[in-house]
Structure formats: C-alpha cells, structure tokens
Amino acid sequence: MGATVRSPPHFIRELSMNEEYAEKCQALSLESRFRFSCHNEISCFNTCCGDINIFLMPYDILRMRRAMGLSSGEFLKGYTIPLLADEGLPLVVLKMMEDENKICPFVTSDGCKIYQDRPWSCRMYPVFPSSSGEEGFIIKEGDSCLGCKEEKLWTVEGWKKDQGIDIYDKMNESYEEITLHDYFLKGNKLDPEKSKMLYMACYDLDEFKRFLFETRFFDVNDVEKGIIKRVREDEEELLSFGYKWVRFNLFGEDTLKLKDKLFNDILQAKYR
C-alpha cells in the first residue's frame, strides 16, 4: 500500500475532482436543470482532465483495464497509485502523466481514448452528489468550464441516464456498503493483512480469481455450481462475489457458508 489519506472512503463519490470543486457550488435535485456540453470546439476542451485527483472505484478499474486489454495487476501497477485510509481501507487513485499539466494518461487531442469505459467521476462531471445516501447534487458555478455556458439543457436525472451511470451506481453500491459499514463507524480498523485481502478482492480481480480457482476455496466454501461457473466466466459476477467474500471475512456476515457445518456455526457464533 502507499501513503495514508485522512478522508473517509465515501468521498470517492462525492469529491473525485479537485477540492476546489466544492468551493462555490449550486445545489441541484434529480429534476433540476443545468447547461452543459463538452466538445473539441470549446477552448477548455480536455483541460479538466489534468492536475486532478480521480479516485477509482473497483468497477471503474474493471472497465478501464478491460478496455486497455490489461490484466488487473498490469493496470494497477502502470496506471494507479494505492493509498490507505485511516480505517485501513485501500483506495486507488489514477496516476497522472509526469508533465507540467499532469494530464490523464488516457486523454488525447481528440478526447478520451477509453471514453466508453471512462470512470464514474468522469461520467458524472460536472455534477456530483452532495453527500452519500442522499438524492442531492452540486454543480460548480464559475467561469472555468466553458461547457457550462453551452445551450444544451439537461436534468440531473437525464444526464445520469445519458452518461450510463446506472450500471456504475449498481456495481458501486455493494462496495459503498462495505466502506460505510457499522464496523468502521464504531471505530474499528483493518490490519495490514485484511487491507490486502480487501484490495485483492475488490481491485486486483485476476489475482482474486487465481485465489478462488487455484486453491481449495470451493472445497471449503459451500457455493452453488451455477455461481462458480458465473464467477469463472463473468468479471462483474467475480467482483460481486468478491464483495460477499469480504463481508464474510471482515464482518462475519452470512454472505458465504462453509461446507463444514460445525466449523461454520462456530465461526458465526464468534461474530454474533
């Protein structure tokens, strides 16, 4: 893991861009209207893609590295910076280019080269949730983004639909349930081994898949054959299974069951 950050993990959704973004914002609801259009005929095209902190959710990484044709390990090593929150939760930041503009490595003069698989925060821009668990949003007011002066009019709900946010929200929901779990709200922290376990299951999916299928995992854990087949063939299913495994191991929840009933009962009683 890398350097430690003090912000809580749910800030990934709330403030993925510069902290300056929240300095002067307008409150919006799902039905609120705003103007925005980004294209290569405005002078600030691509400038919002440099010198920013983009925190990546697990589903972001799944989509981005698949678009690049890379393994999860290759993508994480080449394009990200690992961080560690106070709670011991691993976080991942997109690594920017080492030039004076610190531009995103996926940006070209024509725009984003992985546009169809760009991360959640890039899709939502220039709108962001005002806080976790609420249907409130914010948009920055000011002159920095000329796209906000274009004539194209959106509702927040329409923008989310147009940008394909629904599948991202669905896949990220289970991860947020982990990071906002009562376990952490009560002041508990992950030790280094548990942090590595969560990092593997949520971010390094190829390594997690090897762990599942190259060990006796399915000999010990009672998992239906149909689920095993889906986990082997579908990366979204693999990620969802990883969330269940994390909840089982970190919080003692019954998201998985061991084949040895006696041992399973002892384990569950330990966490009650």
Structural write-up:
The chain has 272 residues and is of the alpha+beta class. The protein has 2 domains: 4-170, no CATH class; 204-271, no CATH class. Helix content is 42%, strand content 12%. It has helices at 11-14, 58-68, 72-79, 120-124, 156-162, 165-179, 182-185, 192-202, 205-213, 217-220, 225-233, 235-251, 261-271; strands at 4-5, 25-28, 33-35, 80-85, 90-94, 107-108, 111-112, 127-129, 137-140, 153-155. The strands form 4 sheets. Strands 1-4-5 form a 3-stranded mixed sheet. It has a 3-stranded antiparallel sheet with strand order 2-9-8, with no helix packed on it. Helix 6 (165-179) packs parallel to helix 12 (235-251) and helix 11 (225-233) crosses helix 12. It is globular and about 65 Å long. The two termini are 31 Å apart. Mean pLDDT is 86; it is low at 1-9 and 11-19.
Provide a quick synopsis of the model:
The protein has 13 helices and 10 strands.
The mean pLDDT is 86
Q: Which bin fits the share of residues in helices?
A: 40-55%
Beta-strand content: 5-15%
Biggest sheet overview: 3 strands, mixed
Going across the biggest sheet, name each strand in turn. 1-4-5
The succession of helices and strands, N to C, reads: EHEEHHEEEEHEEEHHHHHHHHH
First-residue to last-residue Cα separation: 31 Å
What best-fitting shape do the alpha-carbon axes yield?
Answer: globular
Number of helical runs? 13
What is the total number of structural domains? 2
Rg, alpha carbons: 20 Å
Report the uncertain regions. Answer: 1-9, 11-19
Give me the secondary-structure category. alpha+beta
Number of strands: 10
